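Sample entry (972 residues):
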Amino acid sequence: MNLPTGTVTFLFTDIEGSTRLWEQQPDAMQPALARHDAILRRAIEQHRGHIVKGTGDGLLAVFARASDALSACLSAQLAFQQEEQKEPASIRIRMALHTGSAQERDGDYFGACVNRVARLMSIGHGGQVLLSEVTQNLVKERLPERCRLKDLGKHRLKDLQEAEQVFQLLHPSLRSGFPALKSLDSLPNNLPRQLSSFIGREKQIEEVKQLLLASPLVTLTGTGGSGKTRLALQVAAESLVEYSDGVWLVELAAVADPSLVVQTAAASLGLREAPGPPLLQTLLDYLNSRTLLLVLDNCEHLLQACAVLAHSILRSCPQLRLLVTSREALKVAGEQVYRVPSLSAPDPDQIPTEEKEIAFIVSEYEAPRLFVERARLLKTDFTLTRQNASVVASVCHRLDGIPLAIELAAARVNVLSVEDINVRFKHRFRLLKGGSRTVLPRQQTLQATLDWSYELLSKQEQLLLARLSVFAGGWSLEAAEAVCSEEGIEAPDILDLLISLVEKSLSLAGEREGKSRYRMLETIQDYGLQRLQESGQEKLWRTRHLQFFLMLAEEAEPKLTGAEQGEWLQRLQEEHDNLRAGLQWCQQDKQSQEAGLRLAVSLRWFWQVRGFVSEGRTHLNTILSQENASQPTPTRVKALHSAGNLAVMQGDYAAARALYELSLSMSKELGDKLCIAASLGNLGNVTFAQSDYAAAHALFEESLTIQRELEDKPGIAASLGNLAHMAYSQGDYAAARSLLEESLAIERELGARQGIAYALHELGRLAYDQGDYAAARALYEESVVIKKELEDKRGLVYSLNGLGNVAAELGEYAAAHTFYEQSLTLSKDIEDKQWIAHSLSNLGAMASNLGEYVKARAWQKQGLTILIELGNKSGIAFSLETIAGLAARQEQRERAARLWAASAALREAVGPPLPPKATEEHDHLVAVVRATLGEFAFSAAWEEGQAMTFEQAIEYALQDSPQDSSERPAEW
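Predicted structure, serialized as tokens:
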């Protein structure tokens, strides 16, 4: 179905009183509803319209021409009127038409135009067809026969914006007498007209309306600028028909004297103080028998007076409902508190590039919608584009979806680009000024709004708010008590003060795995930090923060390789932002450098297991480059080991070797045998990676001898694993299995989940190479379970590739492809370029086996390009072999022979050789090509490949294939 786009006319329909009809005539409603659907569908389709979706008991339809929409309404209403004359359970339909531009996505429409037509329909009555002024202008010269339009005057719809000129369709056969429209103008209220549109909040509106049905008092709380007032006004507007005596707003923002609260409420209702009874009694007598909604707006600075008034009203006025806005709850019996959430915003890193998808963001997420609409008030041509969409999302994200902050940021687009606004957020409180001059001063700037909240706090609450700003990503009660106590706040008082900050909407409380956790919006945190810096105490509280998380990390370190590994990895993950903040402070504060070194060393296993390799290297390299870094200490040796391990994981063997050699030198100087053994083992790994097998074997054996002497079981298990890996690479499967089984037994004895998973994976690889696919799969799967439990992304990459290999051997190509794709995704997530390349190569090989040569070629070229960037020559040799295999399958036999020869020369120079199983498959493929091509031609091509330089071989491999056969040759 091709839905019209651009300027279109929308039809919105609804059944009047459907809830009542279902209750009174449930048996008759089902067939009546079926007739309703059939009539509407026929009328819409006959007049070239499209039904977009059902909306409860109505529907939304769209037309390319307004005249077609009007004709469809007439046809449907005439049919419904005939039904009404002959059916006892007849239903009456109200309809509305509005024309404008809207965006279409996946068969649905979104935008202000859709919302407007829904509001227009809501003020009508069953049997009535209403038109907006813009639609009336389009159809007035092309009305259906015998039709005319009646001007019903201007009416304020429930979006509280400028009044809409409303018209009614008239026809001799249609009913024409209706009650007054149910607009804001015809129902008792004092709701103010809003000069800007109301964005989103559909879910929140419905939730608050439902709360009002269940509770006599609902209080909207939230951070300053979060949109509490605007939400309350919109709920009030949409609830007008529910309250026969109206909806009344009591504005308290400008009231400073608590004694004036009752007087302000009375004045809002038009009441005056009379001689005799107190004004409160006059107010209660007036409200006692009335069914109305009273909105008390901005109560936070008058809490006691507002609480007394609310309590008195609720006790005396059973038909009345109270809707309150305040940064803090009133704490009155029967109060239902509703925290107004931030506006929804997209992840800045997940913004699409297609124009249609970008337009969808404006409708799907409230924060960018608000930014765009407010920006257009100042710059009419402002829109989201490929260039600025992610930046707008970043602005909204950094402002925590706070409406006031977003509006103030959008107000800058007339003098700054969105990119400039985003860059200047370091000084957000200076940037976000210039709000409307007609609002209260505290609403004109973000700074003033937060100053207002801050000044309402007690002295201790102010101190705690500032101190909590040193946390990053949230905190536990235990952390807050340890870091923020003393200097005017005792630890036992922290809980009550923290609860008070939550109640005042300056902190957020949540629960994670049964434990309470707290956090601040980034905007509030920046404000608190500003206050802390002004007090001159930032260093004191940042140092307290660092010491707490250093103790946590050092407590976790010995447990990251034992039976409690999973639990402690999760604890560190939860506090990762705080750990990062501690490390960053160490880089700024010279007196904290040694603490920073200890913290980085304690986190080395966490970084390795959870895939934060680049980040860990950066922290370690920065700390090791500081003053006194060359002075031998056990902590520095451990730091050198850690930095070297992370360098190996990224294929930076030169850097790793230098770090390990320095660590060995320091270890010997200190006489620390454990560190000597660790340094030897690490040097063995990097030496093996550089193909010096004899030297690597000697280093591993020397390390193992020291570890056995010291009875260092974790070290023994690691050295056995290193020796097993070497034996496997040299084709000695029996030795590799024996070494791995001994290592696995030790790891199981220690309860070291990470070590167990590694040994299982290596045993699975052995089983795979020996053709025992069932055993290989079982071992890989057991390894995957542990790695998922530990959230060991890097380990998962290895095992998922292993499972993919097993599935491929068993002909389960779809499963293999899924495993390889999962491996590729995780490799990208942990930024491991070597495994990205390896996963791409596996995907290419799978596509090649399936005859999907174009796709295979693309993946293989991507993988080879990454390996070239890394300078990984052994990986490049493997990549040349896989590209050669693809060429062979595409009947490009000379090309395959040249690439195999170039790869063989490279592998001979840099090693290591192919494992036996891979060698067997490779040799078979080469033999088939040799036989098909002929000895003379094959030898000539082979000699050409061997004569290529390293650079020539790479250039040749990256050249586009001369052909892409769509079918697999029979011999393959």
